[in-house]
Specification:
- The chain is mainly α.
- The chain contains 5 helices and no strands.
- It has a domain of 112 residues: Ferritin (Up-down Bundle).
- It is globular.
- The N and C termini lie far apart (64 Å).
- Keywords: Signal.
């Protein structure tokens, strides 16, 4: 009687499928960068901290402007409402790190005062964060550089996480 071929376990199928999916994603992402083979470092990956050039420079300026506006609102909200400072401190640190990531200064940005009550100010700040997240997603789609697109998408994800924590 012929013996049956051994069957793969469910775990083996899932692991091999996951590895194949990860390899496909890595291959796809590696094709998103510059067409110039000299643009990548010796490991073959683009440097996400490299300064943006050309059209991406204008995009980075727009993103920096949006980040600066939201940072100013977060600083102002925290200065006006001490009860909201735990939230605003996280957002301020996040936006300053994002400005630094795209090579724009954020240390010189300061806040003012916010009118209204604490709940109104919190709602306004979270709406601004939502708007910023959408702008970061759109900017990631507009980016010419795959490395910049990844950085912007990561920024959008970080803003989404902070909004979720604040909810």
């Amino acid at each position: 009687m012929p013996s049956r071929a051994p069957r793969a376990s469910r775990r083996a199928v899932l692991v091999s499928g996951g590895l194949a999916g990860a390899a496909a994603i890595a291959t796809t992402l590696s094709g998103c960068g510059s067409a110039d083979p000299g643009a990548a470092d010796s490991a073959g990956a683009a440097d996400p901290t490299a300064p943006a050039v050309g059209a991406d420079s204008d995009l980075a300026d727009r993103v920096a402007e949006h980040l600066g506006e939201t940072l100013t609102l977060a600083l102002s909200t925290g200065a006006s409402f001490p009860a909201l400072r735990p939230l605003t401190r996280r957002l301020v640190a996040l936006h300053r790190a994002h400005l630094d990531e795209i090579g724009r200064p954020g240390d010189d940005i300061s806040g003012g005062r916010v009118d209204g009550g604490a709940e109104t100010a919190r709602a306004r700040l979270l709406r601004a964060e939502d708007k910023l997240q959408g702008r970061l997603v759109r900017a990631a789609l507009e980016a010419e550089s795959g490395a910049l697109a990844q950085v912007l998408a990561s920024m959008a994800a970080a803003v989404a996480q902070q909004r979720l924590v604040a909810s």
